[in-house]
Amino acid sequence: MKTNFEIEENYAVQFKNRHIDLHNNFDFIELADNAEKNEITLKFTKTKGEWVQEGEFSRLIFLLKNVNYRYFEEGDDSEFPEDAKRLGEITFFPSNLREVNDSFTLQKNPEENDDLMFLFENGRVVRVNCEEAELIVEE
Predict the structure, then answer these.
(1) What is the pLDDT at residue 41?
(2) The organism sits in which domain of life (predicted)?
(3) Looking at residue 71, what is its pLDDT?
(4) Are 121 and 86 contacting, i.e. CB atoms less than 8 angstroms apart?
(5) Domain count across the chain
(6) Is 93 exposed, middle or buried (CB count within 10 Å of its CB: 0-12, 13-18, 19+)?
(7) Hey, how many other C-beta atoms are within 10 angstroms of the C-beta on 105?
(8) In degrees to the nearest 10, what's the CA dihedral of 13, 15, 19, 25?
(9) Domain extent for 53
(10) Pairing relation of β-strands 125-138 and 2-3?
(11) Is the pTM of this model over 0.90?
(12) Is the Cβ–Cβ distance between 64 and 38 less than 8 Å?
């Protein structure tokens, strides 16, 4: 998998020498699975809070291209609805361990055949294997 970002401490990414805290500074807003283009997009928007730096990006899009594996698990946000918007961890994870969807590894870059997993606070899992994972940022 080719990427234009690195994972930092499983809650953030490094993009063009900039630390982006996905857990604290961004809310998940949409998942779009475009089978016709064989792409998946995950969209995040800057959260509202006094702790978010003024110069933080307003929106992030993870564009996953040439998808060859996708797994989605819905979470349970009945008790804490805000947890559906909050990313818990982001990780590259070995594709030969697809029965494990609740764990993460500490690695910055994908190894050959790794999946990219997004684990949300409400238990939602988005797991994708693709040729390219591109992070697009909007000021």
Answers:
(1) 98
(2) Bacteria
(3) 96
(4) yes
(5) 1
(6) buried
(7) 15
(8) -70
(9) 2-138
(10) parallel
(11) yes
(12) no
